[in-house]
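During the no-cost extension, the postdoctoral fellow (Dr. R.K.) reprocessed legacy sequence entries with the updated structure-token encoder. One reprocessed record is reproduced below for audit purposes.
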Amino acid sequence: MSIKIKDNLKNMIVDYIFEAILNNEFKSKDQIKETHLANKLEVSRAPIREAFAQLVTLGILEQIEKRGVFVKEINKQDIIDTYEAKGIIEGFLATSFIKKASKKDYDLLNSYVIKMSKNTNSEKEIASIGTLFHKHYLKYANNQLLLNELEKLNKKSQLLFSKNLSKLYSREEVKQRHQLIADALISKNTQNIENTIKEHYFHTGNKIILLR
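Re-encoded structure tokens follow.
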């Protein structure tokens, strides 16, 4: 089996486990058994182990010696650390947008804000548009080390955010919060951009803690 095929298989298993946690098929503290998963997905145990290792690194699963692999219980400090790191890294990377962004880029940014506040949107649609919004202003970022770290944080925060979305913010609040980011980017003030994005995530992290 080629390295590319093995990597694709591992990524498929990572996505499967991640979606299963999102859908509450695997809950906090549940054990995920290697043999059971291999039989269910009809794959060998090697890519299962690789997928487990990646999800342990992301802080989504945990390996307990002599017991096995479990869905990690995320505590308050995990939430604070995740959202603080996410805000700081994304805020810094977002400043690259103002160096190359065109009028079309700014127009698209504002269009995402309008789209995500429509009353006809489902929660999943709002989250999907929000993801596009954030990805758009990171399109010119080229620090690969920070982008890789942000991708890891995104995985973990997605689990926290998606399970609390309906309780966190109204559609109007979603619009206002993202409009603040769009306005900061339009200001082209790097300090304003970093502070606004940090506050965006710090507030979400603290609110998730209050809801638990």
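The domain at 76-211 is CATH 1.20.120.530 (Four Helix Bundle (Hemerythrin (Met), subunit A)). The chain has two domains: 3-71, 76-211. The remaining legacy entries will be reprocessed before the final report is submitted.
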